[in-house]
Each structure stands twice: as C-alpha cells, then as structure tokens.
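Model it.
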Amino acid sequence: MNSLFIAINMLRRTLFQKKGFLMYLVIPAAVVSLIIGVIGQQSDHGVDIAYINLDQGAMGSHLLQELSMLPDYRLKEEASDTALKEVITKQKVSSAFVIPEGFSETLMKGASAQIDMYQLNMNEASITLKINLDSILSRYQGAIELHSQQGLQGAALREAVEKTMSQMEKHQVKAKVTDFNLYVNPNMNTVIGFMLMFMMGLINNTVSVIMDDRRQRTMARTYSAPIHSYEIVLGNFIGSFLVGTLQVLVILLFTRYVTNYDYGLPFVPQFVILEFFLLASMGIASTVASMVKNASNMSVINSLVVTPTCMLGGCFWPISLMPDWMQKIANFVPQKWVIEAILRMASGQTLSQMWMHMGVLTLFGLILLGVGSVILRPGDAEVS
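Modeled.
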C-alpha cells in the first residue's frame, strides 16, 4: 500500500501538472505523429512519365493506349523536346520517351522501329518502362509479320493490323493481381525507432525526479518514515513504470486511431513488447543516473547513451546495412530486440513466438535495475 502511495505521488509530480502533461504525453504523441506523416506512410507506387508522339499513324496511339492501361504509369504529354528535357532535368518525371515520326510506316514495312528514351539516371522505373516498350513493340511486330505471311499488303495489311491492335487493347484475357498488403511497411522501422528514442528520453526525465529527491534530501526523509526500504524502492520504480506506460498508451492510441497509421499488427502484442522495452529503458536510465553525482550532467550523459544505442539498435537505419561487427554489438542494446520483434509480428508471427525477445528485454531490465538501484541510496547526495 505504501508503495502505491509513492507511485501515485510520482504521477502527481510528473503527469498531473501542466508542464509534465505536455512534456510527457502531448509532445511525444504529436512528434511521433509528425514523423509518421513525413516518412511513415506507404509510398506511392505510381510513376510519372512524359512523352511526345510525333507519329501520324495509328501505331503510336495504340502504344500510348497500352501504356496508359498499366496501373503504375501516369502519362503526361509534352509539347516539345525542350519541355521534355526540362521536366527530366528538374526530376518532375521519372523518365520520358519520344515516338518518332514515321513510326507506324516503319513497323508496317517490317523494319525495326526505335523509341528514344530520356532519363536522368537509371532506376527501377526507367528499366521497367524499357521492358514494357520492348514487349509492346515485339507484339506489334509479331502481328504485322503474321499478316504479312498471309499475303496481305498495302491497305489490306493496314486494316487487318488495325483490327488486331483493337482486339489486343481489350485484354479480354488477363491476370488479376490482388494485393493483400501482407508485406511490412518499409518505413515502419524508422517510425518504431523514433518512438523508442522518445520513450528512452522521457524515462530518463522520470528518473531525474528520483535524482532531485536525492539531491534535496527528500529521499533521506522518506527513508526515516516507519516503512520498509523495499516499499520505497518498489514505489519509485512502479511510479516510473506507470508514467512510461501512460506514454506508450497515448502514443499508440493517437497514432493508431487519430493519425490512422497501420502498424500491421494488433494493438495488444505491440503494447506488450513496448512494455518490456520500457522495463529495459528504466534499467538503462537508472544505471546512468547511479553513475552521475550532479543532476545537471544527466542530460549530457543521456545523450551519450541514448543516441549511440539507438544507432546500434537500428532506430535510424536497418541493422542489415551495418558491418558484421556492429551487427554483433547490436545484440547488446534493447532497441534491436524490440524492433525485430515488432517487425516479425507485423509479418505474421504471434506474440507467443517472441518469447526470446521478451526474455532478453526482461534480463536487460532486471540486471540494469539492480545496478541502478544505487540512485535510491539516500546517503549518496549530489556533489557540485
């Protein structure tokens, strides 16, 4: 019971004040939502392509019709070569092409027609556009060759090819692709990483409250009260854990149901994993605080701990991009385990399969909390 009173008192001193409410709940939820709005949403797969059609025949129009039916292409006609090159150099479009004059006549003669492509650099969009153009041209040449072998020439050949092109554009038999969104959002790694970084920073601020009690001798007076020492220790840790839990709840509820960000996994498993990370973060913060004798140095030392561990843990970039020796070191920071657990659950695994990740995070928390319990010694006063 005494531990609960101490925990509630910590809540009153942190969250139940205007400054604490803004700093611990409102600002973190707003910042994480802003990050989601900037980099977290699924990227648009549409590709902008500019073109110029100099062909006076029907083949150029048929080719444009074929490309426009592809779901990922947005075609934009330009008036001149100058305008075409300008949109390319300013990167307003991914790539561009020009259908040359006499394109239809060249194909009707059975010759190989050439389409000029423009691109600032080689990328996925330009390569797939090249493949699609070659595929369409191959079909056109095959149809013309087939009718030519039947003895058709001149206007008869042109009419037969035109009918064939019209039937081909109907795509009466085609594959239907259904996207069930079973893949993990590639931007979620960064979203979760920034969320963890804010959680660690806020837990450090909560531990600073305990340091203030030690500096002002409030903790010494608490230990003089007729209660057990373990109740004081438990009350401080429960209070810090409750503050962190409310932070996690507010951030998840706001990003899920206000920002409408799709994490790709249910609410409860994600909340449980973040609670285990919260325990590990409390251990890191208390361990750092136990080595600091002056509270004014706490923010500097936290920066030297939070930022490097977040970098090693994959909060800013995937761990797979780091050298092998850094990937091995990443196993010794909790961020790596919680990000990996969330990404695995987003790809279809269940919370029960994350027993190793939860176990490692628990060990982080228990061991570091044991080391960091030094901050609750009332005799270790702050030095100037």
